[in-house]
Specification:
Chains A, B: Catalyzes the specific attachment of an amino acid to its cognate tRNA in a 2 step reaction: the amino acid (AA) is first activated by ATP to form AA-AMP and then transferred to the acceptor end of the tRNA. Chains A, B: It is found in: Cytoplasm. Chains A, B: Keywords: Aminoacyl-tRNA synthetase, ATP-binding, Cytoplasm, Ligase, Nucleotide-binding, Protein biosynthesis. 2 copies of one chain form a homodimer. The first copy, chain A, is built from 16 helices and 18 strands. Chain A is α+β, with helices and mostly antiparallel strands. An 8-stranded mixed beta sheet of chain A has the order 8-12-13-18-17-16-15-14, with helices on both faces. In chain A, α8 crosses α10 and α8 packs antiparallel against α11. The radius of gyration of chain A is 29 Å and the shape is elongated. The interface between A and B is large, with 128 and 127 residues.
């Protein structure tokens, strides 16, 4: 049915669509014509200048790199342009970050990721008047190859990452030309929120950023965020691999809604329907029943929640852990908290540049954590909230504002941004949560918090098929639909527990950011599916 | 619409369903009753025996581990039960792999993953007649805690991984009881195909295995396959991280079919529709345009192909690479082939036990590769096939049988199981493939093969928005639907290329297996969505 809906537009709709397409095509053609015109103009200018230009072979638009030849030319990286390279003639490929013509000179800032260097084309032995003009006309964000002499500077260049040298350009060729009107300016996109307003300068709103994500991701802030995110994944996996965990790959298309049926996306699967996994929960548990002992996985999870908040996405990356334990699920908590602590330490020790880069635009306090990690019981937390004037029942779930308040109270009392809240009321947890043996109203389950927001939810799971059936029945879940899951526990299952961590939330909260879209490269929410 | 279809069953259907549900519930209840009866019987037996049983506290069914207490008890691992532990009293948790009563003794084989050890309960000082009987009655695959003395054996125990010692059990408690009828026997599941037939013993067919995957994954073969798979992912990432690549996370729910529209799964997305990404292709390219320079990602990709072959899955794990290059896309080929070679070496050097374990059940020749990797051009391959009597046009795509034949010819001539086929005809490649600058009928694209089957497809991509629009138009792709993709190239884009590797295929072909379902934990194909 869904397929029909997609392809089976009415005739009217089709006409409207083809009109629209036609219009777009015309627009495209106009654009292309304009571009061609501009290029022709540049070429013509160059040609007319060529005759009396001694430097005419030293600059220009390169043919599109189509792998015509294997050039034996070493390119240096901007970050390697230090005092050691002084008086060397080098080749470099980089973006034109800014350019400024000034008399017979043109100053450029050349950029590679988070690094940049000052460069200069000046009329003289190696550059003609026409060459300086050509350089001055190169659009921002274009990619150029330059041959240049590295020169020491008298005074440090404060505005560039490479402060001790500048480049004296002897050849410059455009490898890929950027269109002249950028949808957003990189310098606006890294300006701290307050600063823009005070000085009457622009900042860039989030939708503009996300609509033009390819440009937004080029900023020093974005480069730092996603390099740090790559680090979180690596630290997560390396720590667990050292602890003897095995990485698993779990299916995302599933035949039954894993966690009850609400908030699940439906997929048309050939002549039938299927769902997108809301977590790898059931599969990682099956791996425990299949003797993998300790497993982790990193992958997308899908939630069809119509929530437009700062911390909800419809698709995010789950860092999932599951492990058999011997006698007490606190063995699991200890493994997870130690993993988090290793991540925090790894970020602190190896990603200081990235942290400080993000802090320049989004200032925040350094992230604090304790060793061993603080563990509070739910009842203690409720008592702290009561004491702070909050009215709530002992077995009520925590509201988002109360979670945040609790985070502040914990920070005041214990000076930590990371803690575990243990022994949640049974009623607010999923059916597969192990009840507390000492108090049937509570459960062997826990959440973990960073800066007062939940980043992990976990528990000891029920590993007995009979108790699991009872609990599912109690939650009014159709046992037939989760048969293969329940059957997994019929042939000997070790006691086990685990949890799922939201990658984007960990990055957001570690860096003290305020919107999870900042730490998702191409975020998905009920209103955003592009780019 | 899809939602309605799922929930909107007719009244008749609902009645049929609730009858079915009722029947199932009755069946469940009967099962539970039987189990309770059996447990009561065991308990009763134990109780009646208790009065005159001096060992009555030394065995029994443990209460379900519900984290009642933190036991200060160290458990040893089976693989650590070596001669060094002789004459030590140890605690161990493991599965009962087999048990055999013999007079006043009961022999057990206790198993942990791929390791096992012989154990013995014998009537004497520490064990009563009743205790031996209890041990003999423990169902296969149950999980037990045993306290035992480690004893040296006179003769090596050939049938166990731990050959120098056996365990003399002094206490034994059942932690989790397996149902008595296993859906498949582990020893049948690891029997080589031929052997079963010859000796009139059972082997297990693939559907039975997959229907009962939790049991099938416990075999030494499965444990080895998926530990090796975990290794492939780790080697892939570690190699690329060392080369300066950044890990990215790309969305799986997308607004437009990325590769043309065929074979794509549709998702209902709130009040609209979306698709499941057939590859991270467009997103990893956007990351290159966003200055990440070299990126990789590991994640699910989805193909709605109705192919029921040995090598197609509807969901598999893609190991994806994309990188900017300087002047020639062979820089990309070199990076990818070196990564593959590092994976092959890492497997050969660190996963020899796993390789040999799989070989016991599925014998195959060791995987051969050359350094540097062999690279053939498409025209050379066609010539080799022509010479071998195959009739095909110069610009025809390779059929699967011809791919396999080519693999054999290459193996004969060059003695390698891994090679690159370069310069495919332009017509058989996706619209974003860069045409060959020297011959418009060919392209800067390549496939990589292991044992004659394709594991990677890749190319230099078109990085110029205008040429990309032309190519998309030529392929009759609606430009409007891929607007944000094409726009990514308007603001300066470096020349770049990459490729996507199928994880399950790499594991299958490296190990010389013959069905990709063997290397997918929970495979998905047009006919299988469970477990």
């Amino acid at each position: 049915m869904t397929k029909e809906k997609v392809n089976g537009a009415t005739e009217e709709e089709q006409q409207a669509q083809s009109k629209k397409a036609l219009k777009k095509q015309q627009k495209e053609a106009e654009k292309a014509a304009k571009k061609a015109e501009k290029q022709a103009k540049l070429a013509a200018e160059q040609q007319s200048a060529d005759e009396d230009d001694f430097a005419k072979d030293r600059y220009g638009l390169s043919a599109m790199v189509q792998s015509q030849q294997k050039l034996d030319r070493a390119l240096v990286r901007v970050q390697d342009l230090t005092a050691e390279k002084v008086d060397q003639l080098i080749w470099l490929r980089s973006r034109v970050h800014t350019s400024r013509a000034k008399g017979k000179q043109c100053f450029l800032v050349l950029r590679q990721q988070q690094f940049n260097v000052q460069a200069l084309v000046a009329v003289g032995d190696r550059a003609s008047k026409q060459m300086v003009k050509f350089a001055a006309n190169i659009t921002k964000e274009s990619i150029v190859d330059v041959e240049a002499m590295v020169r020491k500077v008298e005074q440090k260049i404060e505005s560039c990452s490479q402060q001790d040298v500048e480049l004296h350009i002897e050849r410059i060729f455009v490898i890929s030309q950027a269109e002249p009107r950028l949808p957003l300016q990189l310098e606006d996109a890294v300006r701290p929120d307050g600063e823009g307003e005070e000085e009457g300068r622009a900042t860039v709103n989030q939708d503009t950023r996300l609509d033009n994500r390819v440009i937004d991701l080029r900023t020093t802030t974005s480069q730092a965020i996603f390099r740090l995110q790559s680090g979180v994944c690596q630290l997560f996996r390396d720590t667990l691999t050292k602890k003897g965990f095995v990485e698993i790959q779990t299916p995302k298309i599933i035949s039954a809604a894993s966690e009850g049926g609400a908030n699940v996306f439906t997929v048309s699967y050939f002549k039938s329907s299927a769902y997108l996994a809301q977590s790898p929960q059931l599969y990682k548990q099956m791996c425990i029943c299949a003797d993998f002992d300790k497993v982790f996985c990193v992958g997308p999870v899908f939630r069809a929640e119509d929530s437009n908040t700062h911390r909800h996405l419809t698709e995010f990356v789950g860092l999932d852990i599951e492990m058999a334990f011997n006698y007490h699920y606190h063995e699991v908590i200890d493994s997870i908290t130690d993993t988090m602590v290793q991540i925090f330490k790894g970020l602190r020790d190896n990603f200081q540049t990235e942290i400080q880069t993000v802090n320049k635009q989004f200032p925040s306090e350094p992230f604090k954590f304790l060793e061993p990690t603080l563990r509070l019981e739910y009842t203690e937390a409720v008592a702290m909230l009561h004491e702070a004037g909050v009215e709530m029942g002992d077995e009520d779930d925590l509201s988002t504002p109360n979670e945040k308040l609790l985070g502040r109270l914990v920070k005041e009392k214990y000076d930590t941004d990371f803690y575990v809240l243990d022994k949640y009321p049974l009623a607010v947890r999923p059916f597969y949560t192990m009840p507390d043996p000492n108090n049937p109203k509570y459960s062997n389950s826990y959440d973990m918090f960073m800066r007062g927001e939940e980043i992990l939810s976990g528990a000891q799971r029920v590993h007995d098929a009979q108790l699991l059936s009872e609990r599912a029945h109690h939650h009014q879940i159709d046992l037939e639909k989760i048969k293969s899951y329940i059957d997994s526990f019929r042939f000997g299952a070790p006691p086990h527990g685990g949890g799922g961590i939201g990658l984007e939330r960990v990055c957001m909260l570690y860096l003290g950011l305020h919107n999870v879209r900042q730490t998702s490269m191409f975020p998905r929410d009920p209103k955003r599916l592009t780019p």
